[in-house]
Automatic annotation (TrEMBL):
Species per Swiss-Prot/TrEMBL record: Acidovorax soli
Protein name: PhnB protein
All copies of domain PhnB-like, residue ranges: 2-141
Any Pfam family the entry gives: 3-dmu-9_3-mt
Taxonomic superkingdom: Bacteria
Cited SUPFAM superfamilies: Glyoxalase/Bleomycin resistance protein/Dihydroxybiphenyl dioxygenase (SSF54593)
Length: 144
């Protein structure tokens, strides 16, 4: 069994996918928009009629998956209800070198907020914490 993160970007999923492609070298392996739902009557919140009312719009991302290294992350615009909230969780990156850690950390920090600058700790030659521009918390840690 695997545990895989699923992130809801509340209307900013496509922007996030573009950002992670550039910042982390992510590879998008699947993307389905609400308008592409093969079973639009399958359930509340999964059908769109082209209206401009509340809820998901046809072009919004219903489901996407992307790989960062060997890890699959799933994502969606959710219901597009407002600002995404990523609290109580961090995604952790384990680059092999300090140089790669700095590159990844700086890329994630672009437009985000550094929570703990990248630096040497008792458990790692390079560790730092950053919330990216979408509010997703990341820990970058080079193994000893």
């Amino acid at each position: 069994m695997k545990v895989e993160p699923y992130l809801f970007f509340e209307g900013r999923c496509e922007e996030a996918l573009t950002f992670y492609r550039k910042a982390l070298g992510a590879e998008v392996t699947m993307l389905m928009r609400y308008k592409d739902n093969p079973e639009p009557a399958a359930g509340a919140g999964c059908s769109v009629d082209g209206s401009t009312g509340p809820g998901p719009q046809p072009e919004m991302v219903m489901h996407a998956s992307f790989n960062v290294g060997d890890t699959q992350v799933m994502a969606s615009d959710g219901m597009g209800s407002g600002k995404p909230s990523f609290q109580g969780i961090s995604l952790s990156l384990a680059p092999e070198t300090e140089t790669e850690a700095k590159r990844l950390f700086d890329a994630l920090a672009d437009g985000g907020q550094v929570q703990m600058p990248l630096g040497k700790t008792f458990f790692s030659p390079a560790f730092g914490m950053v919330a990216d521009r979408f509010g997703v918390s990341w820990m970058v840690v080079v193994p000893q």
